[in-house]
Write a structure and sequence with these properties.
This protein is of the alpha+beta class. Helices cover 51% and strands 22% of the residues. It contains 5 helices and 4 strands. Strands 1, 2, 3 and 4 form a 4-stranded mixed β-sheet that branches. Helix 2 (40-53) crosses helix 4. The chain is elongated and about 55 Å long. The termini are far apart.
Amino acid sequence: MEERKEEMTAQNNVEEMTTENNKEEMIKEEEIAGEITISPDIIATLAAITTMKVPGVTSMGGLPAAPLSTLVGRKDINKGVKVELKDKTVNLEISLVVNIDSSLIEVAKEVQKEVKKVIENKTGMTVNKIDISIRDVSYSEKEKEEEENTAY
């Protein structure tokens, strides 16, 4: 009889543990109520970093040309990006400088595609539109030297 009691107690303990585990899983699966807010500055920084990774982009409009590694962490990296948020949708205006040897249209389209993908994946927001303004073109240092040497 005592053996039977011990068996039933052990079985009840296992059932209780299983029930508790199921409750924990259910809580994990449920979404927690509350609002998540992402600052427009964060979205602008994501857009700027993504833009600078696109081949052919040499700098953001409003920033001197510099490698991406020197720009990351600077407060003004998102200069050249304007963000408008409305009901979980994002509109962006991006100003940039493109290398003269690149196809301006292709670079602009690639920036739109990459920025849209990154913003939507990282924020869960919908990108409605991305306007691109190519503010200037840049030359490589070698081309600048050749141009200066032939000017004399």
